[in-house]
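INTERNAL AUDIT FORM
Audit reference: QA-55
Scope: verify that the stored structure record matches its stored sequence.
Auditor: D.O.
Record contents follow.
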Amino acid sequence: MLANHEAMKLLEDEQFCIAYELGTLSKIVTQEQLERWVAGFSYDHTEREHTSRYQWVSNFVSGRTVLDIACGTGRGCLIMAKEGNAKKVTGCDIDPKTLRYASIRNKHDHVNFFAQNGETFTSDSEYDVIVSFETIEHIANVESFLEHIRESLSNMGQLFISTPISSIGVNEKPDNRHHLREWGFFEFQKIISAFFKIDKIYLQLYPPTKSKWKGILNLNKNLKMNDAISAPQLWDPKIIPTKELGKKRNGYQIIQCSK
């Protein structure tokens, strides 16, 4: 009976995951954009940019406790546990269905998931590393979000937080309908510096564009298979001038912070 019960559970889990993946493909066809990265069921450029971002941050997590806020389907958590050798990775997301998918497809002994709203989450633990990739632009109360992160970061901990680089100071009507707002290069740093000490700034950029910039969403629609987004690189203003960011050079900034 026990073996039969386990077999039924495995079948139910597989059916759930297949339905979730088909739903992702449907959103690509009907909406041409995704809210969450589903490994193997996303645009090629989405796969590359998210994978390279988590592989990069894995260099900072060995033997450390990690919190991934808005972890989505959990592939990033798995990368940090397996490739980064993190001591423990906790993934937090608002959607229970997405977390169920994560716990099945991206299961690992050093990874656990829990459901909370990233804007109001609380934790009884402090973390050595907190990762928040492509989250803050979805948040209504940014100050509350950053304050909760600060409370959950250990005194010697590090925060890695990323967001798209807007061509204007504050864009209240981004092309991506899932984003509430996006910020220019220095405007975003100003927000972060009110809560954290900015240690380093990294860029993850698409190939240079000659056309007028209209947002990452529109750029993504026109990307070719070989238009690889770069892995995160330490920002050097002598190589990439500030005036080009959000215009000729589009993509994301990743800020490494401490208390």
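Auditor finding: record pair retrieved intact. Residues 221-227 have pLDDT under 50 and may be disordered.
Action required: none
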